[in-house]
Amino acid sequence: MAERVQQPPAKRLCCRPGYGATCRQGQRAAGALCGGSAATQGESSRTQSPESLLDIAARKVAEKWPFQRVEERFERIPEPVQRRIVYWSFPRSEREICMYSSFNTGGEELGSSGESGDETRLPFRRGIALLESGCVDNVLQVGFHLSGTVREPATSSEPELLSNVSVSFDRCKITAVTCSCGNKDIFYCAHVVALSLYRVRKPEQVRLRLPISETLFQMNRDQLQKFVQYLITVHHTEVLPTAQKLADEILSQNSEINQVHGAPDPTAGASVDDENCWHLDEEQVQEQVKLFLSQGGYHGSGKQLNLLFSKVREMLKMRDSNGARMLTLITEQFMGDPRLALWRQQGTAMTDKYRQLWDELGALWMCIVLNPHCKAEQKGFWLRQLRRWNGVDVCPLEDGNHGSELTNLTNALPQGPPGNPDSLTRPHRTVFTRAIEACDLHWLDPHLQHIITEDHYTNYCYHDNLDSSLFDARGWPLWHEHVPTACARVDALRSHGYPKEALRLTIAIVNTLRRQQQKQLELFCTHKKELLHRGITSVTNLESWVGHPLDPIGTLFSTLMETRGGSEEGNYSHHPYDGESFVSLAVETALIGLGQQRVMPDGLYAQEKVCRNEEQLLAKLQEVELDDTLVKIFRKQAVFLLEAGPYSGLGEILYRESVPMHTFAKYLFTSLLPHDAELAYRIALRAMRLPVLESTAPSADLSRPHHIVSVVPNRYPRWFTLSHIETQQCELASTMLTAAKGDPRKLETVLESIQKNIHSSSHIFKLAQDAFKIATLMDSLPDITLLKVSLELGLQVMRMTLSTLNWRRREMVRWLVTCATEVGVFALDSIMQSWFTLFTPTEATSVVASTVMSNSTIVRLHLDCHQQENLANSARTLALQCAMKDPQNCALSALTLCEKDHIAFETAYQIVLDAAATGMNYTQLFTIARYMEHRGYPMRAYKLATLAMTHLNLSYNQDTHPAINDVLWACALSHSLGKNELAAVIPLVVKSVKCATVLSDILRRCTLTTPGMVALHSRRNSGKLMSLEKAPLRQLLDATIGAYINTTHSRLTHISPRHYSEFIEFLSKARETFLMAHDGHIQFTQFIDNLKQIYKGKKKLMMLVRERFG
User: Fold this and answer.
1) Predicted confidence (pLDDT) per residue in 106-161, tens digit
2) What gap in Å lies between CA 796 and CA 864, rounded to an integer?
3) In the Cβ-directed half-sphere of 800, how many Cα atoms lie within 13 Å?
4) Which residues pair with 993 in a beta bridge?
5) Measured between alpha carbons, how far is residue 411 from residues 399, 606, 849, 1055 in Å?
6) b vs e for 1008-1024, b when ≥16 Cβ sit within 10 Å of the residue's Cβ?
7) CA 55, CA 46: separation in Å to the nearest integer?
8) Which residues of 435-465 are buried (b: 16+ CB within 10 A; e: fewer)?
9) Which end of the chain is least crowded, N or C, by CB within 10 Å?
């Protein structure tokens, strides 16, 4: 709390003209302690003596009456009575002091030390430590004012600090605090805590004086003058200017100070008009909230704001008026957040954590306006505030969608008949709309009053009035109200410190939900044939209870579980009517809410909230240990959910855009499986539906309860959480597969459900992998049925992704082959036989067939020779089929796979030759040609190389082209085969290659060795080097010289000075080639002269040419 060093102004004027000298005599106590005599110590007394009537009366007056009213009521108040009133006016409980000095709940802070380092730094903990260390001194209570000094010992980094602390109080509440430490915070500092706790724990050690005005009344003129002069002398530097100013005003007859009867007294207590509330530094609250908001979620600011909201709830629970006051300050800062306008202008959504803070803000205002003991004028004030905030343009909307004009079926409806879900005229609802609407609610209904005030309120004549809507058939009270609104009442009762009343209303609401569920079941059973025949339904629940802004189901669940937790009877507190446990009520309530068929709301935030709220409820349920009683409830609710038709998310008739039940069903499945496996599977299989992804409703098939109702069949809804929902669907399926291991019938049923309801290939692939892992656990033999399920799912994935792009496709193919290997040789043979429906030709040859024919597969399958040959034949057949379909990508793999079968290999080679003329490029042909040479077929390699050359075209400047190495290899191969082969390939080279450096390299290589030197047939080797003056090298030499000439002219067209030296080197290489001809010297000289003449404008370059070449 920001402590101000200046004293607070006096609250009222004090004057006692009725007192005379006789009254004052004997009343002057020099230094009586705060507690007085032992007989009058009250709660502070260490004896067992009964309280005096004086103390009892004084304590009641001190709690309820402002002291001014006491003075006005009685002409004379004896000094002992004043002392006891003043004594009892200080707070006697540490809980409130703790609440105003720490984030944690007061009840958790009453110990003398904290367990964690953070707790020890809380002002309340530090204050206790200072008190117990004897650091509080000079404690004096003057009337309604407490002062003292608190010494904080020196540390390694801080010197000793002596703080002057003063506290004003009234009617058992601290109304003002000041401390010289200068600490600025929302909460009281440790020094204020230490002084306050000193007064609470050691009242008998505190010196007590009456208000200073009473002491002054007892002084004569000389004493008053001496008192004033001494006071000025002691504090002359601080008070002398003020004292002189006051003296001047008093001496002036017309001054304002002389127009007022009496004088202010800061120690005299509160006036009649003063509000009685604990001190709350509004400025610091605003500054802290503004700081947290400005940090934008960083540095734990969201956590700090949530702690502030918790503090508001704590204040409300203590029925402290500062709760609403603090929330008002927080709301003002939230509304002033500049990011709101920025987000609205940019059309972007606020962050999820920030959005949750706004939700909590709206829920807290709902609690405040629903305070059952709120005065009408106070509620009117809050309503005006809420309307003002609600009217601000940037006020966040309840569903989180800025500017959305679409109807939102999750918005609250008035407490009347359901509205039209197709209406597009719905006004925007802000986070404050519900609180504004709640201002119209009241607590005056007699039935409601009976419910919340009586433990055994029943209809004793229920057997004569079975149709009563106020009681169920057993006579228990019901409360018919819009469920979220009714639950908001429960939350308000809990928040304002009325736990028993909240519990009674909760039980009435739960009984109402049960009765409603029973009536819905009866209604559906009556019209079941008609509904199933028509195959249509209306949206029965326009507003979801799970994911609702007011969290109705969570409120009911928490209320019942908190009652269980605080019970003195052990883990199970019981229903006041028939001994039913509150735990069973809580669990049943959660199951009813989670099983409600409800429409998926619009907007990302609202949809995420549905998922988040469901997961939070399920997490709470998982903390409850199931016993026989709870299992019966699970069974009962599971049957209800399966048979309740359109009212249940697990019913036979499902609205197309209903929230899926996958997560809930997974919890039900795992809970019921050990107790009722058949029911568990019925629930899980029914929940596998995801109708929003279905294009049409299966209306003809009435044998299975999977009717899907599409009110808007042509509109694909914007489900932002669809990926998460599909993941949950996948997890449900995986859970069933795991549980069904070893049961072929159930596995088959689960497989059919997966194939029918899951539409994502990645999720089906995950399921296939999961099934494979479960089936092949190391500690047991493989489950062949589960393996086949895994394979079947894998095959479905292959078919789904065959014609679509999927970055995991190669992984999927490899996994499928592994899975088929585990299943057996028949599975491998099957996928190869039907490869065209599962794989691309490339996948089939490079992955499937190659893996099948690998040694590791043969070893893994323990195949005999006959089986190996059959599998190899299938693989070769596959390879040839793939090569025919896609020779460009599969020919090489086909040749590799067919190496050991002469006929198959020849067939693959012929496929390559047929495709070479049209469908294959030079890179593919060169690759296959090199493979042929490697396998010992040089003539076939030569043939393929010549075919590749016909597709190649290298221009003059492509001297780094990747095909150059292939060209050089082809020429070397031709040269090695003999003169005839070389003569045949050179015309192709001349035609395809225009790059001078490449041609010169080929020419040089051909002149170094004799053709056919490395040929297999020695007759091809003539033993002589080939002449450059005869064919075929003469043709290559002329082409090379021509290429140099053309390249030179091309380079000179756009040459820059920085490339001159590189060009000169190029000409040097050209000269080497020219000189290989018998008249090359003359040709090169003519070439240079020609250059000098044509490019004489490039003087510097020509000068370099002359220097090098003359």
Assistant:
1) 443 333 333 444 556 788 888 898 888 888 888 898 888 888 999 888 888 888 88
2) 31
3) 18
4) 954
5) 8, 11, 59, 75
6) eeebbeebeeeebbeee
7) 15
8) bbbbbebebeeeebeebbeeeebbbeebeee
9) C
